[in-house]
Write a structure and sequence with these properties.
29% helix; 268 residues; globular; Rossmann fold; 6 helices
Length: 268
């Protein structure tokens, strides 16, 4: 299904119940987050917490489908810069609290995140809890062949060129098909608007898109990379979201090939 162009409603927002917009461009996604934070005064850290709760539930579902109990699971999370990496750090905390053995592979060097940013706050929390976090910014991420699941929290909608350096090494490390990958928002390396790989691109077993589905995920070219796609609402006001998408609770809602919620899906 082709994304339809935004039509402003009375508030000027593309994506409310009066708008036909279903799938967001990268710019739309940034605007949705901006309005939540600046207009509706919802802190970004709360949006990140909602996102990470839904992602953690999706990770546990994927482990359960493979017959792996949380207490037996080994989960490796590759964390990049920005909010995508922050989501990954927060997911690590939730899975650690659930009993999973979690390793955070940080592709950002020490001090590389803006001090006080939402992602940096997540790093501080995890470090205080003692959740293992390895600096993977200078060489190939040290992945274990015994991992039950790997989470791709490397790059999100901010990508505009092929990943390089530590980010590319992280993407390439996830191309090992022996361990399933859950991608945060969209597979790292995939253009969020065109749905085409910009370079090395993760091939996920499952993608959980946040806020609203991204336009590129609806393109046929994206399907070899996304696996099954689910949607998690992150706490934006229900007036900002098309009526056919749930605004609460922050749990994965399976989407069909057209990226519309499946009838009877969780959260719908």
């Amino acid at each position: 299904m082709e994304a339809r162009p935004p039509r402003a409603d009375r508030s000027g927002v593309p994506g409310s119940e009066e708008s036909p917009l279903q799938h967001l461009t990268a710019a739309d996604s940034r605007e949705l987050d901006r309005r939540a934070i600046e207009v509706h005064r919802i802190p970004g850290l709360i949006l990140m917490e909602h996102a990470s709760i839904g992602l953690a539930i999706g990770a546990l579902e994927l482990l359960g489908e493979r017959g792996v109990a949380p207490e037996e699971a080994r989960v490796e999370i590759l964390c990049g810069p920005g909010n995508n990496g922050g989501d990954g750090l927060a997911v690590g905390r939730h899975l650690w609290n659930r009993g999973c053995r979690v390793t955070l592979l940080d592709l950002v060097p020490a001090g590389g995140r803006p001090r006080g940013s939402d992602a940096d706050r997540q790093r501080e929390i995890n470090d205080a809890l003692g959740i293992p976090r390895i600096d993977a910014s200078t060489g190939p991420p040290p992945l274990s062949p015994r991992a039950s699941l790997r989470i791709d929290a490397i790059l999100g909608t901010g990508i505009s060129r092929p990943p390089g350096g530590a980010l590319e090494r992280g993407v390439r490390a996830l191309l090992d098909e022996r361990v399933p990958v859950l991608s945060v928002d969209l597979p790292s390396g995939l253009d969020p608007d065109r749905g085409e790989p910009l370079g090395a691109t993760v091939r996920a077993a499952r993608t959980i898109t946040l806020g609203l589905p991204k336009q590129g995920l609806a393109r046929p070219s994206a399907r070899p990379f996304t696996g099954a796609v689910s949607y998690v609402p992150i706490g934006a006001a229900r007036t900002e979201i098309p009526a056919n998408y749930p605004a609460f609770p922050p749990v994965p809602c399976p989407l069909g090939e057209d990226l519309l919620p499946l009838r009877g899906a969780s959260g719908a």
